[in-house]
Amino acid sequence: MPSVKAKPAKTAEPRSRDADRSQLAILLAARDEFAQHGLGGARVDRIAERADVNKRLIYYYFTSKDELFLAVLEQAYADIREAENQLHLRDMPPAQAIQRLTQFTWEYYIAHPEFLTLLNSENLHQGRHLAMSGRVRDMNSPLIQTLAEILERGRSEGLFRGGIDPIQLYVSIAGMAYFYLSNNHTLSAIFGRDLMTPKARHERLSHMCDVILGYVLRN
Amino acid sequence: MPSVKAKPAKTAEPRSRDADRSQLAILLAARDEFAQHGLGGARVDRIAERADVNKRLIYYYFTSKDELFLAVLEQAYADIREAENQLHLRDMPPAQAIQRLTQFTWEYYIAHPEFLTLLNSENLHQGRHLAMSGRVRDMNSPLIQTLAEILERGRSEGLFRGGIDPIQLYVSIAGMAYFYLSNNHTLSAIFGRDLMTPKARHERLSHMCDVILGYVLRN
Amino acid sequence: MPSVKAKPAKTAEPRSRDADRSQLAILLAARDEFAQHGLGGARVDRIAERADVNKRLIYYYFTSKDELFLAVLEQAYADIREAENQLHLRDMPPAQAIQRLTQFTWEYYIAHPEFLTLLNSENLHQGRHLAMSGRVRDMNSPLIQTLAEILERGRSEGLFRGGIDPIQLYVSIAGMAYFYLSNNHTLSAIFGRDLMTPKARHERLSHMCDVILGYVLRN
Amino acid sequence: MPSVKAKPAKTAEPRSRDADRSQLAILLAARDEFAQHGLGGARVDRIAERADVNKRLIYYYFTSKDELFLAVLEQAYADIREAENQLHLRDMPPAQAIQRLTQFTWEYYIAHPEFLTLLNSENLHQGRHLAMSGRVRDMNSPLIQTLAEILERGRSEGLFRGGIDPIQLYVSIAGMAYFYLSNNHTLSAIFGRDLMTPKARHERLSHMCDVILGYVLRN
DNA sequence: CATGAATGAGTGTTCATTCAT
DNA sequence: AATGAATGAACACTCATTCAT
Question: Could you tell me the residue range of the domain that residue C39 belongs to?
Fold first, then answer.
């Protein structure tokens, strides 16, 4: 069975002469650093340390901190899209599909907290990195198309109410999850209650499903 | 021998009005700067410029950048609480109160975009400023109490479903507004559609009310 | 007897709380550093060291390396103009005035080798600093005007030939001195002869006077 | 089976013509880069780009930036010497030879502005590259010898004044041209007059000839 | 109450150069 | 003969903060 990698599988590779590996290490380290400190608070030095590469190499491959941030952002979008594609919502009954999407969104955000802070950073900077991205169009989530189809199916089956904008619905699902998780610290402080206990998390998901289905379902 | 200082030597004043004026100017300037650039990206120099005061004065009154940030944060919470108190939701029929709250949240966030970014910054820093605040407890929104009463009233009148957690509901309302507005730039880029036109804003509020009332109302 | 300085003559001044002194120290240190290494080769760190001030202070007063260079350049021009003004060429007989100017130019360049390298740097950068200077116009050497008058006087007295452009003449005098001194190293290497011995210097000045007077004088 | 390589497989060639080509490309690119930015401001990366070769190749052939600069410098001297040799001043009447030399110097500097900046750079660095050159001696311009002969011929014919040092004369001719051209930017700024118009250039050459011949010729 | 002067520790970025093939 | 990957030392410039009055 042949290796998938294009690179010849040399025995005993020199530890650090691997362009792909270096690039990936930088990307992952940068993702974590940007997620933890935001774009402004992230330190290129720290990224180099995390990735265990020479700082200069970051510039060799990514030109600047901003371009590195963009690369991280694009990767983050590529990742969530990939995960969405694995859901196969089209193969489910409409109500189940909506519930599955809600659950997925919730769980993906929990598993990938960096996604939330990366988006926050990009929005703080008014989306100027994404605006310069050649790959933004590819990010146009096909999920919206899928969601539209599910809503239409639900409606024609008499289950769902009509006139639901899939984008509005998607933003609502995401928003309910996002706000709770992204603002967890301030909310916990103000309400004086830990929002991240397993129980609290379970209740949140449950609530979200109730709200979304309560809205979508006829009656 | 009279004082050389230009400032009028008022006889009995609670220790200079200039002090208050400078302090307020700094606070407002800081709010804008932090909102625009985040905590990490904000520059003390720029705040001094915006407030038209000597940079040293900022330290004189607020000790450090972090304490200034906290002061801004506390002010932001005080402001929204003040606004919430003006709503008099208790005086309305339950369904109307819920709708009014939804609308208020939406409109307040639009009128005070700085509130969103300030919260984002604080959460990026894991709520550590709020944690040091002596006034957090005061921020425990009485709105939750009010909301609980409204929900109970609606339930006892047979209008609302039972078992609704007011905190969950509040977070959902806020989240649907917050996410749309705070992530406006990335969402607009990805969906290729301007989410901030008057029409789009109107539709969003309408959708939010539908979702929330669809959930709250029995049937 | 009152102090000329505007600043009150405090006894026991704190060693380093003197804005003027710091600024001047920076300017002098920068002049030497730029002269020695050129604009590109000059190091801000080294300037700070030479001036014995904190590096940050350089930016505090001069904003950037380029603006500092401009300040140095402007000072250099101000200095030579000041020296030219002391010559009182107008009070001399024409031939003597020309000779005096030649000698002055020669000696000023020798005493101020930094002037030559500063000009070389500025010209390497195509005069872009001077182009941004608000004070360029003030640098329009009144010497040219004086020279024109001297030439006219000499001509009307029947001593000088007519039709001499004072700018051309000035550039020739300066050029003969400048090239010899500025390119001293390459010339010495190529001709295999030290051009900077007292004797060689004396001969050069003598030659220059011969050439210039040989040209200017009728016959 | 023929070689795939585009390069013709010459049988007996002194080890590849590509090598020479790359070396020359580097040399020319370096000359332009050094001329434009000076030694300190020149970038090895940019030279590689200009020459369209891998940066590493520059080190392969020239060892270091400084040695490359020296190579460029030596080439520049070789070039001007070659051009001087084409003048055949010896075959002309003395006065014409002097005039021809003046004109040649002027025109060569205009056609080769890089020569001026290269020399400036080398002198800024106190001639330390040339000092290390094994070929400096070859640069000892035979022109000086020629010039001496011309001056002697002119003197013995009763045309020229005696006692003229050919080196002094050469430096004066070169200096009058060099200063005008090399310092063109600062001079233009200060005199507020474009020194590089065709008319201005013509006048300069004319003036130079007047000065030099006015000096050299008896009377 | 207010401020101009000053600073140590960093900040993203650059540069000539070397490594390994 | 040629090259993509990698690096240490710098570099211009910045920042929150303190000094001294």
Answer: 17-63
